[in-house]
């Protein structure tokens, strides 16, 4: 068994691909990242901006991106539990279940 690799910054979920599972490599996976971009101050000085969820496959580089615009940035958890979070998780899981790509080594 190999030592698990550290997750990259901002990764909130990881789905091991078929290739990663077959090769016992947890770095060949679909990672979901969540980033926030502040745009302005809203009511009560709360930051308003965009929350972006990106599901990216390290095997084949395919990706799915969803941006929720104009939200209070303290609403990250509700966004992750909403349709937007469900969409990203479903895409990542579905892709990981079928992807057999292995990234080219340097």
Mean pLDDT: 89
Counted beta strands: 4
Helix content range: 10-25%
Q: How large is the radius of gyration?
A: 16 Å
The main β sheet shows up as: 4 strands, antiparallel
What topology does this entry show?
Elements: E1 11-16, H1 18-22, E2 29-41, E3 47-57, E4 63-72, H2 76-80, H3 83-98
Antiparallel strand pairs: 1-2, 2-3, 3-4
Write up this protein.
The chain is 25% helix and 38% strand. With 106 residues, it is α+β, with helices and mostly antiparallel strands. It has one domain (11-98). The two termini are 24 Å apart. The mean pLDDT is 89.
Question: Could you give a short description of this structure?
Answer:
By secondary structure, the protein is α+β, with helices and mostly antiparallel strands.
Offer a few descriptive terms.
single chain; 106 residues; alpha+beta; four-stranded antiparallel sheet; 4 strands; 25% helix; elongated
